[in-house]
Write a structure and sequence with these properties.
Rossmann fold; 4 domains; 8-stranded mixed beta sheet; 17% strand
């Protein structure tokens, strides 16, 4: 190689390793750092020096750069903004590398020559900066520019840390932060009931930050993460790592996978490796992924029918003709465009070293092109990416400068705008935009635009053609309210059933069931348990069952409450009530007839025997006892609850006391017939009246104490039966209730024993044997009633008590008065004093 050839080669290498720089002079200069080349490589130069070189400029990145040029050109042609001033720029390609980004900023601030921090030899100072695309390059730029301070507007950085207005008061961006984006994604997941998801992230700082943020947001929205996979760089264990990732995706029940971080060549390799296990997994792509998915043919299983979150673009001028005008022949100094032509069309450039390096890295053979190649077809097929955000960023900065120039009275650029660069961010914050006919600030308090999202169904068709179908939209208003609309019917799903995929750890709990914690560490993994009796759940996946009201009970499948039936002895619904009413009325009438008969024959011997007054008292008390049955029928209330037990206990006690007095009268009469008997003084009406009064008074005292201290009251028994409510009387105190029954039992026992002992005594008409039999019936009925009463509930318990009252009263009534009535009505000859005296003699 001759010295001239060597010198020419070194010049080409030096040119190759130069930073990609674009400069256009103007009265007002703006600086810029944008990502165009996405691949970095260390190359050893001729002097044995390793230099960082940018390679592989994707077209969607280059469109952002063209949008910058277009916006500046449009502003300079517009007479209504920055009049009499031209807008210039000084912009570098950061290659998505923070080191090159910082170096570019220092070059712009210092001017030509050696970079000297905090020193500038430029004639025209910049008034603001645009960029960068990624958070990892934007963050150090913002930290550096915040020292001076310069206003900075990013068109793609989404890191939530940049929203801190204390650290970055002059930083703005035309995209929302990650927190807002992932909150929208979480809302979207909850809408479809997806609570079990996976995450695929790039293995870098951006991926780690976004994964941590997303995981926390998912947890706050009660969504669990089954796995987090990182797209790692190639290493000795790369194959094993990829196989393990494929296995985790394949075995997971999560059908929804969310992407995080940066879509770079490493992420592309990862997705290509797991392509075959993604056939039934729906991928959710965040807005940073959307402009970068170009070569979709090799990732058909991954991206087909995925859901793409993208920022909604505003009205944009027609840039396509402007973009298509760029050609290496027209722009020979555009080194990025030259590299793009090599990448897109495999064209040889004038730089042999570049040709050799790119052919090695891109693994392609280059040829000499005809010069008729055009970007037009590619521009139409490539996503718009962030061109609107770039366009709006440039216009926002120019508008702020224009407003500041107007406010300061159209002074010259050198004496006004350049001297007030630290004031620019105040005018950016004050900018207003027209939305739906109303004016609002273009940037929020955090220096961000209020985002509007469109969700697309990414459909991959034949010949590497994509069709994006809009299926939903989200708008975040100034008050942080969320407005959304989803067209579920327009979404094509990635499963054989063509239905909404189910992405849950556990099967959905049906209506009538509730979730219970399982042994898994995830809250989203649970078991299903049926609701308890009296509880329901009327929707699927209920956390808790709802308790039915006290007047209702749960259905068989525990899905709804059924009103409980109200149960009591009703006149209209229970035939047994009608029967008891008829029996009570019949016996009451019968007792009244016998009472009339006795009154009409009150002077006959058969009536006068054994104290006719006691017989009248006994008849009245029995008649009233029959009427007490009506206190037990119908819906009980507090007053009937008090009267039913007290009246029954008092009247039965009076009846038994009357019988006891009758028995004692017979016994005393027999003892008094003996000569010199001391019992003669006790004969007459005094003793039976005292017995009746004393024995009845004790029961009166017991009943009055009961009513005063613990009166019975109405209550609703909702626990004994699930399907009905028993309207019953609560006795208030079981002690007082059984005291009434106990005293009545003692009276009955004493009366029975006394009558049994006096049954053989000679008398003109001895009732003792009838009283003995009647008390035997009475005691038998009430002794049998007590266990039956205690073993039943509701209306049947009341029916047992009514039956005992009717039977015991009928026994007393029949055994004592039927024989006398028979003699009075059918054997009147025996109802004479001569007949009775003859029998006694």
């Amino acid at each position: 190689m001759t010295a001239a050839d060597r010198q020419n080669s070194e010049a080409q290498i030096e040119e190759l390793f130069e930073d990609y720089e674009y400069v256009q002079d103007g009265d007002v200069m703006i600086g810029g750092v944008t990502t165009v080349n996405s691949h970095l490589a260390f190359v050893t130069a001729i002097p044995s020096e390793r230099i960082l070189m940018c390679l592989f400029p994707p077209l969607y990145y280059y469109k952002n750069l063209l949008a910058f040029f277009y916006a500046v050109d449009e502003i300079n042609k517009n007479p209504h903004i920055l009049p009499n001033l031209t807008l210039g720029y000084h912009i570098y390609d950061s290659c998505a590398d923070p080191r090159k980004a910082i170096k570019s900023i220092l070059h712009i601030l210092s001017g030509p020559g050696k970079v000297v921090p905090n020193y500038s030899c430029t004639k025209k100072k910049v008034v603001g900066f645009i960029g960068d695309h990624y958070s990892r390059t934007t963050l150090p730029i913002a930290q550096l520019l915040g020292i001076y301070p310069y206003s900075q507007i990013s068109y793609g950085a989404t890191d939530t840390f940049l929203s801190d207005r204390f650290l970055f008061p002059s930083f703005f961006r035309t995209v929302p932060n990650d927190y807002t984006t992932y909150t929208i994604i979480c809302h979207f997941l909850r809408y479809f009931g997806w609570t079990w998801v996976g995450i695929i992230s790039s293995d870098d700082d951006t991926g780690d930050t976004e994964t941590s943020l997303l995981t926390n947001l998912l947890t706050s929205h009660e969504i669990c993460v089954d796995f987090v996979l990182k797209a790692k760089r190639k290493s000795p264990h790369y194959t094993n790592d990829m196989d393990e990732s494929r296995y985790m995706i394949k075995k997971s029940s999560a059908r929804i996978i969310i992407t995080c971080g940066t879509f770079n060549s490493i992420m592309q390799s990862f997705l290509y490796y797991v392509n075959d296990v993604m056939h039934d997994r729906t991928l959710i792509l965040n807005p940073t992924f959307s402009p970068q998915i170009v070569n979709v043919l090799d990732y058909h299983q991954v991206f087909n029918l995925s859901l793409l979150f993208d920022l909604r673009h505003g009205k944009m001028p027609d840039m396509e003709s402007y973009f298509n005008s760029f050609h290496p022949s027209k722009n020979p100094k555009d080194l990025i465009l030259e590299s793009l032509w090599i990448v897109m069309f495999s064209c040889l450039s004038g730089n042999k070293v570049k040709n050799e390096l790119l052919s090695i890295f891109l693994k392609m053979s280059l040829h000499k092109c005809k010069g008729t190649e055009s970007l037009n077809d590619y521009l139409l097929s490539v996503s718009r990416g962030n061109i609107f955000q770039m366009y709006h960023a440039v216009w926002s900065l120019a508008t702020a400068l224009h407003n500041m120039d107007i406010t300061r009275g159209h002074q010259s650029a050198d004496h006004q705008i350049h001297q007030l660069t630290h004031k620019v961010h105040h005018y950016i914050k004050a900018m207003t935009c027209s939305t739906d006919g109303s004016e609002r600030k273009c940037f929020t308090e955090k220096g961000e635009q209020q985002p509007s999202y469109s969700i697309y169904n990414d459909i991959l068709l034949k010949r590497n053609y994509r069709a994006l179908r809009a299926v939903a939209s989200y708008n975040v208003s100034a008050g942080s309210d969320l407005e959304f609309s989803i067209s579920t019917e327009n979404i094509r799903w990635k499963n054989s059933e063509k239905e909404i995929p189910r992405s849950q750890c556990s099967a959905s709990c049906k209506s009538g069931q509730r979730k219970v914690t399982s042994s898994s560490i995830h809250l989203c993994c649970y078991d299903c348990a049926p609701c308890s009796e009296g509880e329901i759940s009327n929707k699927s996946d209920s956390e808790n069952c709802m308790k039915c009201p006290e007047d209702a009970w749960s259905s068989e499948n525990r899905t709804f409450c059924i009103s409980k039936k109200i149960e009591y002895l009703s006149y209209s619904e229970d035939i047994i009530s009608v029967a008891f009413s008829c029996l009570s009325t019949f016996f009451c009438i019968l007792t009244t007839l016998i009472f009339v008969i006795f009154v009409s024959h009150r002077d006959t011997p058969i009536v006068r025997a054994n104290n006719k007054n006691l017989s009248f008292v006994l008849l009245v008390s029995i008649m009233l006892s029959f009427l007490c049955v009506f206190l037990f029928l119908g819906r009980p209330v507090d007053i009937t609850c008090m009267l039913r037990q007290i009246c029954t206990g008092l009247l039965l006690s009076i009846s038994i006391s009357s019988l006891l007095a009758k028995t004692i009268t017979v016994y005393m009469a027999f003892k008094a017939t003996k000569p010199g008997s001391v019992w003669r003084t006790w004969t007459g009406v005094k003793l039976p009246n005292c017995v009746l009064l004393i024995c009845s008074s004790i029961q009166v005292v017991i009943c009055m104490s009961w009513v005063t201290l613990c009166p019975p009251f109405q209550e609703l028994d909702t626990q004994s039966y699930r399907e009905k409510i028993i309207v019953q009387c609560n006795e208030g105190s079981d002690l007082w209730f059984f005291s009434v029954l106990g005293y009545m039992g003692i009276l009955a026992a004493v009366s029975f024993i006394t009558a049994f002992l006096a049954r053989t005594l000679p008398d003109s008409f001895n009732e003792a044997k009838y009283i003995t039999f009647s008390m035997l019936v009475f005691c038998s009925v009430w002794i049998a009633m007590i266990p039956a009463y205690l073993s039943t509930k509701g209306k049947y318990m009341v029916a047992v008590e009514i039956f005992a009252i009717l039977t015991s009263n009928a026994g007393l009534f029949g055994c004592i008065f039927f024989p006398k009535c028979y003699i009075i009505l059918y054997k009147p000859e025996q109802n004479t004093k001569s007949y009775i005296m003859s029998r006694t003699a």
